[in-house]
Write a structure and sequence with these properties.
This protein folds into three domains: 1-55, no CATH class; 61-86 and 336-448, Aspartate Aminotransferase, domain 1 (Alpha-Beta Complex); 99-333, Type I PLP-dependent aspartate aminotransferase-like (Major domain) (Aspartate Aminotransferase, domain 2), CATH 3.40.640. Helix content is 42%, strand content 15%. It has 16 helices and 14 strands. The structure holds pyridoxal-5'-phosphate (PLP).
């Protein structure tokens, strides 16, 4: 539903926002809105957003009042606190309050202070960061690693840094925002292949190479997709890249550290350690910090991106504190304790998937820290998530345009600190909330 209600509510109007207005529409309605006033769309959006908030239907932009542990407290924008069982944080190995990680941060702060005070291409690359790059290179089996301020910055920066306007990008239609935005910023020649469909990627590559033997092709995918929790056949994609003289880039934000032998993620699980052209990743999931990286076999890749990936070159380097946290987390990931944490995580994941399925719910993807549960129609999904909050369950609602229309979902993110009992309780709560939401649907909103 587009901008009707905000237009009717032109400044000064006293008409009460309706429940139907809060239940319908999406952020896409407020993206393009012709007006000489750049802020008019922002006002319309703010009205819709606050209407949703007033009806308790805005489970976004909540703030943590306690650490992102298995139980936490989130404060709504209207000041209400919701305490509950937390499946909305991406601290997969539960390292964010780990004593050794906190101690490493404190030790680094005592030695270095809190700030790196410069881009990594100038004087902001603290010595510990160079050591971290070497440790990551060893972990990934790829000798050249460059750090980025965030995972998003790594995805965007690597693509925009390497792809010129006449080059091509072929990527999975569900690739993350940083990859899609980077690709579109770099070139008009962005070709999306159907999700996980290697044959479709091949057809696109064949056509591109037939028409354009002169320019580069970047083939982009993810280790574990963040909305559907599934993984591509990486060996097949790497072979395709070789055949068509393309460069394969795999974003391992969600699986590295949390899955696979020694925490090597899907690349390790698929027996491809050290064999992917370019790997990018984020530390924000299993490494308890902001930050990202790119890794590859050639020094040329690293040195080029140091100067040509704007999100690294023109942005401040990671702080000494972040570097210490990531490095200590990496040590845990590679240790016996890391193995144990991954086992705990997978047990909780399996328990949750099983319990949700037993409740008759549709669970997507494969066993990974992300457990997507189909909620369906956006109106029902918003009501269901409100009901979950009232029943003390915290999990993220994902709706159009982040996922297709009428395929809204609950994205549950599991941590190694979740127990089988947590999983049972969460599944029962999701089922109860979804059932309650059916009763709450306003008459006008009952049809899909
Ligand atoms: C595949 C993928 N890449 C990159 C990012 C961004 O990572 P960060 O939050 O570290 O910027 C995410 C975030 O969820 C992601 O899912």
């Amino acid at each position: 539903m587009p901008l009707d209600e905000p237009a009717a509510l032109a400044e000064g109007s006293s008409r009460l926002p309706t429940l139907e207005f809060a239940l319908t529409g999406s952020t896409a309605d407020y993206l393009i809105h012709a007006s000489p006033d750049l802020l008019s769309k922002a006002r319309a959006f703010e009205h819709w957003e606050s209407t949703r908030l007033a009806h308790g239907l805005l489970p976004f932009a909540r703030s943590l009042q306690t650490p992102p542990a298995a139980h936490t407290t989130l404060r709504e924008q209207d000041g209400r606190d919701v305490r509950g069982l937390n499946f909305s944080s991406q601290d997969y190995l539960a390292l964010s309050s780990h004593p050794a990680v906190v101690a490493a941060a404190q030790e680094a702060m005592a030695r270095f202070g809190v700030h790196s005070a410069g881009s990594s291409v100038l004087a902001g690359n603290v010595g510990d960061g160079v050591a971290l790059e070497q440790a990551l290179a060893d972990f990934l089996g790829l000798p050249h690693v460059l750090l980025f301020p965030t995972g998003w910055a790594a995805g965007f920066g690597v693509i925009k840094g390497l792809v010129r306007p006449d080059d091509h990008v072929v990527m999975d239609v569900l690739a993350h925002n940083c990859l899609q935005t980077g690709a579109r910023a770099a070139t008009r020649h962005v070709h999306l292949h159907r999700h996980l469909d290697v044959d479709h990627a091949r057809r696109l590559l064949t056509r591109i190479r037939r028409n354009d033997p002169h320019n580069g092709i970047m083939l982009i995918t993810e280790g574990c997709f963040s909305m559907d929790a599934d993984s591509p056949d990486l060996a097949a994609l790497q072979a395709l890249a070789q055949e068509f003289q393309a460069l394969l880039v795999v974003d391992v934000a969600h699986d590295l550290g949390a899955m696979g032998p020694n925490g090597q993620g899907q690349i390790g699980l698929q027996g491809l350690h050290g064999q992917i052209d370019v790997v990018i990743g984020a530390f924000s999931k299993s490494f308890a910090s902001n930050g990202g990286f790119v890794a590859g076999r050639s020094r040329a890749l690293k040195e080029y991106l140091r100067y040509f990936a704007a999100t690294a070159t023109f942005s401040n380097a990671l702080s000494p504190l972040q570097i210490a946290v990531i490095h200590q987390s990496l040590k845990i990931v590679r240790s016996v304790e890391g193995e144990w944490r991954r086992e705990q995580l997978m047990q909780a994941v399996q328990a949750l998937r099983q319990a949700l399925t037993q409740e008759g719910l549709t669970v997507w993807g494969q066993a990974s820290p992300i457990v997507p549960v189909l909620l369906g129609d956006e109106r029902r999904a918003r009501l269901a998530v409100r009901e979950m909050g009232q029943r003390h369950l915290l999990a993220n609602l994902v709706e159009f345009p982040a996922v297709p229309r009428h395929r809204a979902r609950l994205r549950m993110q599991v941590m190694s600190s979740h127990t089988a009992e947590d999983a049972q309780q969460a599944a029962a709560t999701v089922a109860a909330a979804l059932a309650a939401s059916a009763q709450l649907m306003p008459q006008a909103a009952q049809t899909p």
